[in-house]
Amino acid sequence: MQNKPVTAIVVGAGHRAMVYSQLAIDKPELLKIVGVADPNPVRRKMVMEKFGFSEDMCFESAQELATKGKLADAIINGTMDEQHIETAVPLLECGYDMLLEKPFAVDENEALLLKECAKKNNSKVMICHVLRYTPFYYSIKERVASGEIGDIINIQMTEHVSYHHLSTSYVRGKWANSQKSHTTMLLAKCCHDIDLMMWIMSETKPTQIASFGGKYQFKPENAPEGAGTICMKDCPHVDTCVYSTKRLYIDHPDRWAFYVWDKLEHIENPTIEDKIALMKSDSPYARCIYKCDNDVVDHQSVLINFESGATGTHNMVGGSSQSLRKIHIIGTKGEIFGNFEESKYTVLKINPSPDAHNEECDVEEVDLMVTGDMVGAFGGHGGGDERLSEDFVKFIRGEEPSLACTSIFDSMAGHMSVYRADKSQKNGGIPQKVEY
Question: What is the CA radius of gyration of the chain?
């Protein structure tokens, strides 16, 4: 098997599944896409034509695919969060291994069910915690794992979600309403960050969590006076409002194209006129941002206590001027802090000797753009997408995967921490025990 590409079937031919499947185009010796299951005929045809398999390997659902038995080595499951159980379980029962998009389950019961299903079927299930694979976080993990900064006392993580990302995904878009998407903001967006914290803190376990947050900005009472309900149809502020759909999507038609123009995907080359018409229709992306049905938080803070006695914090703030992820880890021998967007971090090591920097510590500046670690890594998620896909192939082949490889069992700590943080937030910040 090592000399042959891993064969995989795409289930849910959305944006993320197609990103991971790109490895079959770039490195066909590693991965071969041999089928697709998706209810959308346009997407089934697109995947079939892109990867060159026959129509008899096109299926309308994971359930239909499961009735055919095992037709490939693995599944690349990119379905929506709330569909993971119904699509993953029948295929794991067929004997497939699986690359499964995060979050892999929308609540504790689903997480435990899927974990037990993987265990029962001896399935290799890898979760798409893609930020582990970026040169920035991978390099930091290596430094921590080597013991350079000693035992961790505290870890601080911050994520600022830009105003246009928040608007598109978490106010107007797919993850805006927890009743429909079955996920919270913390689960849909920050399970990346909480997973990174658990990965870096892998020598210990979370034991207790408290959290506060809420919906601060995007409420009807905050709408500009006289605001309409469809920006480009009935709103006098269409040319001045920061969150105007004209300014976010027509003036920037390519930025969030995969989501905003999904209803135009049956048109081969939609024109700007087609897009303007959509922004005057009942598309969810056409709505006034202050008059949507969003119920997820736009800011949330999390405090975690670990079994070792260490503590951790994560702050998510939505509606910022630009996207930003920062990390600061303080250990008994030193500390590491850095900026993900800049791919730079600093290592400080305690050194009281006279020749130390400022007679306090040794300082090392690490710029991954300069060292060459980021060469060729300007793809999605800071260069992590392709690395994840390649590691999945190693995982399936039984080869030694990287330090970042995340089986479903490794992913439990992060997911359970998110569930308990959300429970705390909904209950006024009352601390919750973490058990899994």
Answer: 23
Pairing outcome for strands 74-77 and 58-59: unpaired
**Burial class, 347, CB count within 10 angstroms (exposed 0-12 / middle 13-18 / buried 19+):** buried
User: 70, 96 in Cβ contact below 8 A?
Assistant: yes
State how beta strands 206-214 and 152-162 pair.
unpaired
Helix, strand counts (H, E) of the chain: 17, 15
Is the CB of residue 154 less than 8 Å from the CB of residue 310? yes
Digits of tens for pLDDT over the chain (436 positions)?
457 999 999 999 998 999 999 999 999 999 999 999 999 999 999 999 999 999 999 999 999 999 999 999 999 999 999 999 999 999 999 999 999 999 999 999 999 999 999 999 999 999 999 999 999 999 999 999 999 999 999 999 999 999 999 999 999 999 999 999 899 999 999 999 999 999 999 999 999 999 999 999 999 999 999 999 999 999 999 999 999 999 999 999 999 998 999 899 888 899 999 999 999 999 999 999 999 999 999 999 999 999 999 999 999 999 999 999 999 999 999 999 999 999 999 999 999 887 766 668 899 999 998 654 443 344 455 568 889 999 999 999 999 989 999 999 999 999 999 999 999 999 999 999 998 8
Which two three-digit tokens encode residue 227?
């605001």
What lies within 8 Å, CB to CB, of 290 at 6+ separation is 218, 219, 220, 222, 223, 224, 227, 243
Q: With contact defined as beta carbons under 8 Å apart, do 262 and 169 qualify? A: no
Domains of the chain: 6-101 (3.40.50.720), 132-218+295-433 (3.30.360.10), 220-291 (no CATH)
Question: Hunting for tokens 């006279």 — which residue is that?
Answer: 354
**What's the Cα-to-Cα distance from 202 to each of 93, 112, 149, 324, rounded to whole Å?**
30, 20, 15, 24
pTM, two decimals, is 0.90
Query: Any alpha helices (H) in 59-156, and if so which ranges?
Result: 62-66, 84-93, 108-120, 135-145
* C-beta separation of 204 from 310 below 8 A: yes
CA distance 348 to 345: 10
Q: How far is CA 263 from CA 279, 289, 324, in A?
A: 11, 19, 30
User: Which residues have CB under 8 Å from 367's CB, separation 6+?
Assistant: 343, 344
